């Protein structure tokens, strides 16, 4: 294989491994080699074809997918047509966001107890929409970034508002399986932007924990909703006392056993 072609394959592989939060140390442990050896392999030094195939398998790819366009060119925002189709069927949207979070269709079919024919039809539809790639062995990979955005006020935003938001906001905060942290802080618009950026970093860390948890092959797993929210409080409303119903949020990080679209799967 030409040096340029191999460099492209390895760049794509490193990009996908990074997206899945897989470090050289973790890869070395999985493949029973030293970490320095793994680092050399990831840059093409001494990497044999069978080892490359093993790395592809860990990344959820095959060599054919690895040879496609660089992964950093993946779609960063849904088109209106994609949003409209996703918003029309919640189970369909769940499948896509599960794939986006690293799941394969078999686990989705098992967890959501859907017929295989229905899941296969969903996969073909996602493929036609240009949202996933399907390999010859039926492995799937998203063609969008994990943080793919939808349009404010668009079909997905409206669907989230009408059918998904209640999964987060109607939770019983007194339930035994409801784990949350709530606080109040006084910050500027710049401070809120910094906190939002921190949420994005925490989201990646949460997905990494989920992947490590899955790799441990524990006995039982649940899908969990994770909400990170910051919004200015109406202090006049707060000052009205306990009889007033709060309508605006505080900085909150909550986790409950629920199943919305954009969850971190574990």
Task: Provide structural commentary.
The chain is mostly helical. It has 3 domains: 3-71, lambda repressor-like DNA-binding domains (434 Repressor (Amino-terminal Domain)), CATH 1.10.260; 74-147, Arc Repressor Mutant, subunit A (Orthogonal Bundle); 171-256, no CATH class. 50% of the residues lie in helices and 12% in strands. It is built from 12 helices and 7 strands. The chain has helices at 3-19, 24-31, 35-42, 49-59, 63-66, 80-87, 90-100, 105-112, 116-128, 155-169, 189-215, 235-238, and strands spanning 75-77, 132-134, 140-142, 144-149, 179-183, 225-229, 251-256. A 3-stranded antiparallel beta sheet has the order 5-7-6, with no helix packed on it. A two-stranded parallel sheet has the order 1-4. The protein has a two-stranded antiparallel ribbon with strand order 2-3. Helix 2 packs across helix 3 and helix 6 (80-87) crosses helix 10. The longest helix is centred in the last third of the chain and has 27 residues, at 189-215. It is globular.
Fold topology:
Blueprint lengths: L2 H17 L4 H8 L3 H8 L6 H11 L3 H4 L8 E3 L2 H8 L2 H11 L4 H8 L3 H13 L3 E3 L5 E3 L1 E6 L5 H15 L9 E5 L5 H27 L9 E5 L5 H4 L12 E6 L10
Parallel strand pairs: 1-4
Antiparallel strand pairs: 2-3, 5-7, 6-7
Helix pairs in contact: 2-3, 6-10
């Amino acid at each position: 294989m030409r040096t340029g072609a191999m460099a492209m394959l390895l760049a794509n592989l490193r990009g996908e491994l990074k997206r899945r939060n897989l470090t050289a140390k973790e890869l070395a442990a999985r493949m029973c080699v030293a970490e320095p050896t793994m680092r050399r392999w990831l840059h093409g030094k001494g990497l044999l074809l069978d080892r490359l195939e093993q790395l592809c398998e860990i990344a959820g790819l095959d060599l054919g997918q690895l040879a496609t366009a660089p992964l950093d060119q993946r779609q960063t925002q849904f088109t209106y047509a994609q949003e409209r189709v996703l918003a029309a069927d919640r189970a369909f949207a769940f499948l896509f966001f599960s794939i986006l979070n690293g799941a394969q269709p078999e686990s989705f079919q098992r967890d959501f107890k859907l017929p295989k024919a229905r899941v296969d039809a969903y996969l073909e539809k996602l493929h036609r929409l240009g949202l996933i790639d399907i390999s010859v062995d039926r492995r799937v990979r998203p063609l969008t970034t994990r943080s793919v955005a939808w349009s404010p006020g668009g079909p997905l935003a409206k669907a989230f508002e009408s059918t998904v938001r209640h999964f987060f906001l109607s939770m019983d905060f007194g339930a035994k399986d409801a784990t949350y942290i709530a606080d109040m802080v006084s910050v500027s618009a710049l401070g809120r932007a910094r906190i939002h950026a921190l949420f994005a970093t925490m989201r990646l860390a949460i997905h990494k924990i989920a992947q490590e948890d899955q790799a441990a092959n524990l006995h039982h797993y649940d899908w969990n909703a994770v909400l990170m929210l910051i919004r200015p409080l109406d202090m006049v409303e707060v000052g009205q006392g306990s009889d007033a119903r709060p309508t605006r949020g505080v900085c909150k990080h909550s986790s409950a056993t629920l199943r919305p679209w954009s969850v971190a799967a574990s």
